[in-house]
Amino acid sequence: MVQNPLEEMNNKTMNGFQWFVIFICILLNVIDGFDVLVMAFTAASVSAEWGLSGSELGALLSAGLFGMGAGSLFLAPWADKIGRRPLTLLCLLISGFSMVAAAFVQTPMQLGIMRFITGLGIGGILASCNVIASEYASSKWRSLSVSLLCTGYAIGATVGGIIAIALISNFGWRSVFLTGGLTTLFMFVVSYFWLPES
Q1: Global pTM?
Q2: Which of 57, 62, 167, 192 stands 20 to 30 A from 6 (CA)?
Q3: What secondary structure does DSSP assign to 9-31, as a single string?
Q4: Cα–Cα distance between 109 and 115 in angstroms, integer?
């Protein structure tokens, strides 16, 4: 009798490939943590350049979160139709290119739109990565794997803040978005070659 692959993963010892898949998912969460909070890192500089009011700055800070919610609601369900790997790759492209585009915007409205689009991608990535990591972990290590996945987001936010300070000091706030976008596109290449389907 042929055993179900998911049952086989649940019952066998975790191998190197399974841990590698979970590691990629953690790295994707690290990138997401940076991409989500990049607006918070650059808020003071953006506000100073454009003379934004508190409500205008608040709208920019919220745009990415609204995008995340929309991505989780409307993009993530497509994973069941097209697969979690294709959706993750698509969302990485969406996030990466919109982050790069945000580095070249000329108005607060343009930045808000780019932040919303970035959020869409992040919402899809987060939903897909959680499922992929959970499915590739054995039942014994699933809780640890999901916990490690969650720490990736916090690591991205913490390390991202340190990187952002250095970038803003030397190159201005636009460099933070550019760095985040290029790093996200790099993770697209990594995921394209090494992230398997769930």
Answers
A1: 0.91
A2: 192
A3: HHHSPP-HHHHHHHHHHHHHHHH
A4: 10
d(CA 119, CA 86): 18
Q: At a CB cut-off of 8 Å and minimum separation 6, what does 186 contact?
A: none
124: which 2 tokens? Answer: 């899809």
pLDDT tens figures, 6-28: 666 666 778 889 999 999 999 99
Q: Determine how many CB atoms are found less than 10 A away from the CB of residue 45.
A: 16
Number of residues assigned to the chain = 198
Q: How far apart are CA 120 and CA 122, in angstroms?
A: 6
> How far is it, in rounded angstroms, from Cα 141 to Cα 12?
11
What lies within 8 Å, CB to CB, of 112 at 6+ separation is 59, 60, 63
As a whole number of angstroms, the longest Cα–Cα distance in the chain is 69
Share of the chain above pLDDT 90, in %: 73
End-to-end distance of the chain based on CA atoms, in angstroms? Answer: 23
Task: Share the mean pLDDT of the chain.
Answer: 92
The pLDDT tens digits of the residues spanning 62-95 come to: 999 999 999 999 988 898 889 999 999 999 999 9
CA 73 to chain centre: 16
Pure H helices in the chain: 5-11, 16-50, 54-70, 79-82, 84-102, 108-136, 142-171, 174-194
3-state secondary structure of 56: helix
**Amino acid, single-letter form, for residue 176:** V
